[in-house]
């Protein structure tokens, strides 16, 4: 199996140094770290808010289903050579995955706020990122529960003029650290949308979207099998994937569904109001852009405690 080398760019001369290289670096090269960011809208069977939050009558069952999909990805990644896996619980309140049903040695990122949002914990040591249970972006006319970051607040999110889904923003965050997205799972719309932006990433189509709240879906067990197959396929050609790295400066444009957020945010000197509902922020890098997005979606004067 091909592995991405973390020791690239270092040169050694002589038999002794070559031997040292083999002993010290090849072991590290053989290790593989995978990051899994788990959303829920793209999980098999999800079609409405009834599956997506604590007030929904099916939410408890679908916590089981998203946990099973994550476990299917973990099991397949391990069988394909992954040595370490970090999971980000990235939907809603960030407290969806059933911890006791995950492997004991898996660590999980939970709740909010997070400077890197749905990609918190990723760094240069990871070989690839899996976007599990994802959905299409707010500018897309198709897809189950299509939105970007906030279905209630945001009407459009663009990075350097390109309409962004959560998959796109998170791929750019991963790309800052040199980590490529290798697989996206969800409906047919998000898989096609993500490939259009990132190139030939692996995609697991778990349902076919008919509308914002309707789809033809795989059975959960069939979805888990497909996820496992696609994880193995992605890791088998992990060297084929390239990090997504938009060119700086990073111009983030956000259009709100309501009037006042753009008005008040423009009081900040770092924010330009571009029309009645829209603002522009320019960041030095993607972590700075990520922190700004988290700020505009999280901050409220009555935050407690």
Question: Could you name the key traits of this structure?
Answer:
2 domains, seven-stranded mixed beta sheet, 305 residues, Rossmann fold, alpha/beta, five-stranded antiparallel beta sheet
Task: Summarize the structure in words.
The chain is α/β, with parallel strands linked by helices and 305 residues long. The chain contains 7 helices and 12 strands. Strand 5 (154-159) and strand 6 (162-163) form a beta hairpin. Helix 2 (59-79) runs parallel beside helix 5. The model is unreliable at 7-13 and 18-23 (pLDDT under 50).
Furnish the topology, listing elements before pairings.
Blueprint: H1 14-30, E1 33-38, H2 59-79, E2 84-89, E3 107-109, E4 128-134, E5 154-159, E6 162-163, H3 166-176, E7 181-187, H4 188-198, E8 202-211, E9 214-217, H5 220-236, E10 250-256, H6 260-265, E11 271-275, E12 278-283, H7 286-298
Parallel strand pairs: 1-2, 1-4, 2-3, 4-7, 7-8
Antiparallel strand pairs: 5-6, 5-10, 8-9, 10-12, 11-12
């Amino acid at each position: 199996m091909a592995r991405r080398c973390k020791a690239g760019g270092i040169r050694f001369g002589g038999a002794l140094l070559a031997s040292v290289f083999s002993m010290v670096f090849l072991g590290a090269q053989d290790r593989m770290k995978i990051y899994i960011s788990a959303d829920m809208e793209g999980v098999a069977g999800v079609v409405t808010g009834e599956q997506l939050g604590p007030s929904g009558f099916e939410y408890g069952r679908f916590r089981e289903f998203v946990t099973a999909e994550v476990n299917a990805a973990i099991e397949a990644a391990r069988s394909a050579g992954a040595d370490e896996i970090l999971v980000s619980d990235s939907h809603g309140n960030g407290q969806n995955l059933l911890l006791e049903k995950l492997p004991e040695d898996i660590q999980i990122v939970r709740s909010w706020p997070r400077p890197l949002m749905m990609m918190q914990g990723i760094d240069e040591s990871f070989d690839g990122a899996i976007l599990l249970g994802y959905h299409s972006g707010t500018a897309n006319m198709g897809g189950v529960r299509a939105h970007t970051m906030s279905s209630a607040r945001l009407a459009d999110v663009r990075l350097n003029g390109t309409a962004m889904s959560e998959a796109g923003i998170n791929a750019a965050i991963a790309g800052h650290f040199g980590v490529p997205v290798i697989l996206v799972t969800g409906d047919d719309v998000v898989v096609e949308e993500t490939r259009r932006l990132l190139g030939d990433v692996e995609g697991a189509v778990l349902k076919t979207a008919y509308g914002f709240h309707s789809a033809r879906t795989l059975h959960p067990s069939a979805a888990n099998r497909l996820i496992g197959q696609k994880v193995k396929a992605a890791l088998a050609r992990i060297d084929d994937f390239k990090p997504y790295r938009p060119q700086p400066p990073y111009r983030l444009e956000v259009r709100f569904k309501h009037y006042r957020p753009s008005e008040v945010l423009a009081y900040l000197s770092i924010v330009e109001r571009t029309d009645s509902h829209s603002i522009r922020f320019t960041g030095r890098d993607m972590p700075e852009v990520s922190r700004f997005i988290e700020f505009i979606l999280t901050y409220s004067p009555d935050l407690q405690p």
